[in-house]
Amino acid sequence: MPDTLEVWLRGPLPEVPPLLQPVAHALLQAREEIEELLTDFPASLLWQRPAGVASVGFHLQHLAGVLDRTFTYARAEALTSTQLAALAAEGHDDTDLPLTPDVLVTAFARQVDRALDQLRTTPEATLPEFRGVGRAGLPSTVIGLLTHAAEHTMRHVGQLSVTARVVRATHPQGH
């Protein structure tokens, strides 16, 4: 029965500080929902934009990217040129890598794993510390960034879910 429960109802995650449990639970829930939703998702539908909404491919790229960027800021680090290039590439399938649903789902899952590793090593005492965001150094805190990462992730999972269902329903053959 525990596997049928949402992640937050399965109990505390080992080694994750108590105040960061909700962030970890949300990220694990997102990973599970995406893996289930996109099992056998046709690659031909990855970049479809019904009614002009963002594609499933964009959401998958963006989910991994947002986690990477917000957790970088939470460590008080600046984005690298690689991260900035990945940001610019979000929503495009014209990269050097073959972007399939499996590749993008795996990339997101790995980013969740990296985020969980960071949560495990984040001392609760640092949560109220200032962190600048972006080139302008907009004001946030460690807890603000980590909470935003979880909230933003779940928002995009919801959007991805609707888009994936719509494109499957309107293209039942995957073309």
TrEMBL record:
Pfam families: DinB_2. InterPro entries: DinB-like, DinB/YfiT-like. Residues 27-160 form the DinB-like domain. This is DinB family protein.
